[in-house]
UniProtKB/TrEMBL annotation, chain A:
Residues 14-78 form the HMA domain. Its EC number is 3.6.3.3. This is Cadmium-translocating P-type ATPase. It comes from Sandarakinorhabdus fusca. Signal peptide: none annotated. GO terms for biological process: copper ion homeostasis. Pfam families: E1-E2_ATPase, HMA, Hydrolase. The chain crosses the membrane at residues 98-121, 127-144, 164-182, 188-206, 344-365, 371-393, 660-676, 682-700. It is a multi-pass membrane protein. Belongs to the cation transport ATPase (P-type) (TC 3.A.3) family. Type IB subfamily. Its main location: membrane. It is found in: Cell membrane. InterPro entries: ATPase_P-typ_cyto_dom_N, ATPase_P-typ_P_site, ATPase_P-typ_TM_dom_sf, ATPase_P-typ_transduc_dom_A_sf, ATPase_P-type_domA, HAD-like_sf, HAD_sf, Heavy-metal-associated_CS. The gene is cadA. GO terms for cellular component: plasma membrane.
UniProtKB/TrEMBL annotation, chain B:
The keyword Transmembrane applies. It comes from Sandarakinorhabdus fusca. The keyword Ribosomal protein does not apply. This is Cbb3-type cytochrome oxidase assembly protein CcoS. The lineage of its organism: Bacteria, Pseudomonadati, Pseudomonadota, Alphaproteobacteria, Sphingomonadales. The gene is ccoS. Keywords: Membrane, Transmembrane, Transmembrane helix.
Amino acid sequence: MNAPTLPTPGTPLPETLFSVPGMRCAGCIAKLESGLAAVPGVAAARVNFTAKRVTVTHAALSDAALAGAFAGLGFEAVPLADVMAADDGSESRELLRAVAVAGFAAMNVMLLSVSVWAGAAGPTRDMFHWLSAMIALPAIAYAGRPFFRSAWRAVRAGRTNMDVPITIGVGLATALSLYETITGGAHAYFDSAVMLLFFLLTGRWLDAVMRDRARDGVTALLRHTAPGALVRQGDGGTAWVKAADLRVGMVMIVAAGERLAADGEVIAGRSHCDQSLLTGESLPVQVLPGDRALAGSINIDAPLTVRITAAGAATGIADIARLMESAGQSRSRYVRIADRAARLYAPAVHGLALMSLIGWLAAGAGWHQSLLIAAAVLIITCPCALGLAVPAAQIVAAGALMRGGVLVKDGSALERLAEADAVVFDKTGTLTLGRPQPLDLAALAMADKSLALALAEHSRHPLSMALRRALTAEAVVPAPVSDVAEVAGMGVSGVWQGQKVALARPAADAADGLACVLTVGDAPPRLLRFADPLRPDAAATVARLSAMGLPASILSGDRAAAVVPVADVLGLPARAGLSPQDKLAAIGEMTMAGARVLMVGDGLNDGPALAAGHVAMAPATASDASQNAADAVFLGDSLAPVAIAVGVARATARIVRQNFAAAIAYNVVAVPLAIAGQVTPLVAAVAMSGSSILVVANALRLRSAAR
Amino acid sequence: MNGLMILIPVALALGLAGLAVFFWTLRHGQYDDLDGAAVRILIDDDTPLGGDDAG
């Protein structure tokens, strides 16, 4: 189809990113890298195992051809939008640099401090303090920036957050230590200040990595929506036009298997369009000249010529996107646990420090000692353990879920998932696999099977592809069929041992659901029926969720006839034939009634509902917009990850609560000591690291939570 | 005391060198695929030197 064209020398080869969730081991890496490099037109392939991505450098091969190469190696690959690669994890990198600097400074200052605590006195102690200052000051200036910036922003906006006490504590400790050093005093707090930054930055970094990873995972699964279309030019030729440059009135030629880039009216060609992503309708819809064809749907059978009636922001897809955006705004107002804690914590800490300052001044302790004690209070209460409590637990949980096949977008997703108390499923592609599978294969003779395979191999119709998948899995060998021809929208025919054989559309296809007919010579035609099977574990998952206190229901855009059997099998209440607006309204009603809805869906038509739910999950086969709207994406055919994710989210919430309890218990013990003026730098250092390590160790218990 | 005059700068210099190396590795993306690095060691890569056929 797309022959590799050699680019002019000197221009960089195009790179395409693929998400390959199926890679599991070193063997897969070797197989992918060497196997892809051997494909003609591919210059190199590099696997990123952590993100489960492959970067392919190639000579302008089409995505479909590359995905075919992956399939040839036995991997399912999804091409992903190339927008994301650029700003990969810049925030987490900056934080990691700050962690490294703070860690370096903490280690070296601690070496010097230990010598001081061990009894270095006089000029040696002063020299060590000076050295500590020389190391700590630039390190604090560099590593503290994330906190200083955020604290400054908060103060300027008249608010306070967790970063304000951190900034004041670090600043006060540094200033006092500098004063002590200059005047040759006995105690300097440089080590505490630097270590504080180190632990807090570690927490921040974990949080950022978690978000990056999830973003990697989710964007990694983004599908290319139609990037553009072939447009007929005035001179009769055709040119490739990017989706953004398509205009009303242009005439585009849509090949079979291609996704439409704009809404339009068919002016030539007969075909079927798969609109399941847009409407939830699982049967392909027939389109004839004069019919409307929608952007985002896939043209299945035959080439279509379409005059564009709406492009870009005017398409039906864009309407859904806008609906989704406004529905998602309520969720962005969700306040994360850590922020809620900070709201209470910061004023309390400031108050305590101020009170100890005033108290000691009133008791006649003098400015220097009072300030020293206030700084000790700020340092010891600084939310080291608190800063680690949430991100440490969440990143361990997210890692466990990732190994279990669930990609979580951010920490608040886990928090909201733990709060969910009702679940709503879409049908096509969510409860069911969204890809037809043949039902009558067992009744078919071996010769018929090999004929069917031989014919199916020549078509890209979804039913043909389903037939091919099923028959190849049974190791059927295709029969030698000659003169194979595909008639658009009708089927494939050929000649085998002098007889005419055909795989065709049955006479009345809409009534029978998904089916095709195999005819061999004059023998009576055999009807092959197809069904969209339930995901494995669907019933078990629904039962498990309801045992966890999440009653389920179905909201589907498909016809009632297709929804009722599924609802009956699973024993769930269902509503069928809903538009995206209807689904949005249904979720809104449940939310008004006080439910916190976990929405699970895959279609573009589920997008607004996904965005409106308290929390949302989508399968990896979902449309890109749905994956964007979802908080978590699950891989594989099984529905079980939904229940597992809820379980892990709840376990995480439990661990976070324990961590908060530990951090508070630590403060209850440490703060009175600090207020009483009993906290030396040694005590502060030990207490701080001890509580942080305890919190991280507790979070590590979530490692196997997804099993 | 004299020992310290040498050893402390040496210790700091070593630490700074480590930090510099860390920054260098970070900038060159050596932490982008930690899981992959852990399993890549298991790949048999026994193509003869100079051979350009990896498949």
